[in-house]
Amino acid sequence: MKVIPRSFYEKDTVDVAKNLLGKILVRRINEMLVSGIISETEAYRYKDDPASHSFGGMTERNKAMFGEVGRAYVYFTYGMHYCVNAVAKSEKYDAGAVLIRAIVPKDGLDFMLKQRKTDVISNLTNGPAKLTQSLKITKAQYGEDLTKVSGLYITDGINIKRSTIESRPRIGIKKAVDNLWNFSISKNYFTDY
DNA sequence: CTGTTGATCTGCT
DNA sequence: GCAGATCAACAGT
């Protein structure tokens, strides 16, 4: 599997969100690999996106969104949950990131089950805070380079046809509801597979 | 400094 | 369907 180069992330945040579907999110802990196929993403942009963390300008928490593309933006929310984003933006914007909302478990099932303290595989990584728990992603991965084989990176995966991508309003968002920036692989894609 | 709200999930009702 | 866990940003005092 080839690691995805930085140039992949130097495009419009919304396009990168779509392109990330089907790619593999890989977490390396010591020599062990834990990974999954990215099946749902959301785009968060900048001044034109009131729902984005970066909308109000740079803060200590969101500064990764203004930094180099192809890096991880990890944030803590609701007092107990972490979520992962891949920093991605075109030259037109100073900030932007793609939230990874769901993956399909691939390698390291045992580890994930242990992390989540459950035996229901379908409930392992089907939410943004669930997948970070399964892959043991925390603030320690803040700013990690996703374009190199490091503790956290993204590689090539399966090919997704453009027509099998579904768009919806982003989940749990009240602002900018007209932006259909939640992207997922149609369930039919997996049942046919 | 204080109170509210949130890109959430779990467990109970 | 709702409370609880309880951190960071923000608006208001």
Key terms for this structure?
193 residues; alpha+beta; 3-methyladenine DNA Glycosylase, Chain A; 8-stranded antiparallel β-sheet; 4 helices; 27% strand; globular; DNA-binding
What does this structure look like?
With 193 residues, the chain is of the alpha+beta class. It has one domain: Methylpurine-DNA glycosylase (MPG) (3-methyladenine DNA Glycosylase, Chain A, Roll), CATH 3.10.300. Helix content is 15%, strand content 27%. The chain is built from four helices and eight strands. Strands 1, 2, 3, 4, 5, 6, 7 and 8 form an eight-stranded antiparallel β-sheet that branches. β3 and β4 form a beta hairpin. The two termini are 20 Å apart. The model has no long low-confidence stretch (mean pLDDT 93). The chain binds a DNA duplex (13 and 13 nucleotides) through β3, β4 and α3.
Q: How does the major sheet shape up?
A: 8 strands, antiparallel
Multimerization status: single chain
The average pLDDT score comes to: 93
Query: Number of helix segments?
Result: 4
CATH class: Alpha Beta
Shape: globular
- Portion of residues within helices: 10-25%
Low-confidence stretches: none
Task: Give the percentage of residues in beta strands.
Answer: 25-35%
- SSE topology string: HEEEEEHHEEEH
CATH level-two architecture = Roll
CATH third-tier fold name? 3-methyladenine DNA Glycosylase, Chain A
Count of the separate structural domains:
1
